[in-house]
């Protein structure tokens, strides 16, 4: 009888211990990101851009008709890997709004698309200016198919030779170097991303 009560007590203690172990493991094991929660997205990108008067009255991603058209290309690295950067936007040179379409492309060709909305500060005497805004992820291809989410971006733009551009009275495009930092959340179909 004494032996039987010890066994029951040990069995009860072992059972409680195992339940605590299972509960602790369930709490401490990181869960995979569900598609509706998203995963952190951070990245930095460097791009070169060409700015021209918007004489063709183009708009991008349903945005407003603004004064200048911009095409930018570059590359960088993010929490989802290396990505090239391709942006078409319009800007208003006086009031500083910016709107366009951004495509980030992985080395395997998968694309992540976003609507780009922001504002740009006036340039300083050395033709550096800042900007900030929001990216709204709208889908893509491959691993980015049906991607959703948003991110905040900050940027520094550096105008190169403005006097030789349309700003200085010639017909040449205004050349710009752009440096972007992006941080937000993106929901991907594949929870491992």
Polypeptide structure, described:
With 193 residues, the chain is mainly β. It folds into two domains: 1-30; 39-187. It is 14% helix and 50% strand. The protein is built from one helix and eight strands. The protein has one helix at 2-28, and strands at residues 39-53, 68-78, 81-91, 97-105, 111-120, 128-140, 148-160, 174-187. Strands 1-2-3-4-5-6-7-8 form an eight-stranded antiparallel β-barrel. The chain starts with a helix and ends in a 6-residue tail after the last strand.
How much helix is in the residues? Answer: 10-25%
Q: Strand tally, please?
A: 8
- What's the pLDDT, averaged over the residues? 84
Strand order of the largest sheet: 1-2-3-4-5-6-7-8
Structural class: mainly beta
Largest sheet: 8 strands, antiparallel, barrel
Q: Overall 3D geometry?
A: elongated
SS strand fraction: over 45%
Distance between the termini: 58 Å
Report the uncertain regions: 25-35
Q: Determine the number of helices (DSSP H or I, runs of at least 4 residues).
A: 1
Q: Report the C-alpha radius of gyration, rounded.
A: 26 Å
Overall number of structural domains: 2
- Sequence of secondary-structure elements: HEEEEEEEE
State the gist of this model.
The protein is 14% helix and 50% strand. It is built from one helix and eight strands. Strands 1-2-3-4-5-6-7-8 form an eight-stranded antiparallel beta barrel.
């Amino acid at each position: 009888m004494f032996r039987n009560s010890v066994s029951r007590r040990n069995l009860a203690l072992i059972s409680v211990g195992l339940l605590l172990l299972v509960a602790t493991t369930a709490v401490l094991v990181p869960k995979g990101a569900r598609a509706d929660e998203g995963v952190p997205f951070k990245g930095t990108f460097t791009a070169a851009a060409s700015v021209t008067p918007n004489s063709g009255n183009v708009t991008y991603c349903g945005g407003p008709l603004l004064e200048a058209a911009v095409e930018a290309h570059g590359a960088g690295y993010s929490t989802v890997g290396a990505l090239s950067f391709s942006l078409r936007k319009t800007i208003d040179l006086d009031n500083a709004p910016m709107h366009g379409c951004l495509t980030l492309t992985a080395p395997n060709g998968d694309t992540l698309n976003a609507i780009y909305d922001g504002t740009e500060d006036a340039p300083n005497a050395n033709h550096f200016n800042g900007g900030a805004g929001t990216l709204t992820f709208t889908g893509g291809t491959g691993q980015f198919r049906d991607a959703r989410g948003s991110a905040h971006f900050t940027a520094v733009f550096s105008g190169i030779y403005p006097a030789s551009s349309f700003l200085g009275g010639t017909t040449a495009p205004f050349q710009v170097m752009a440096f972007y930092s992006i941080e937000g959340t993106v929901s991907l179909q594949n929870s491992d991303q």
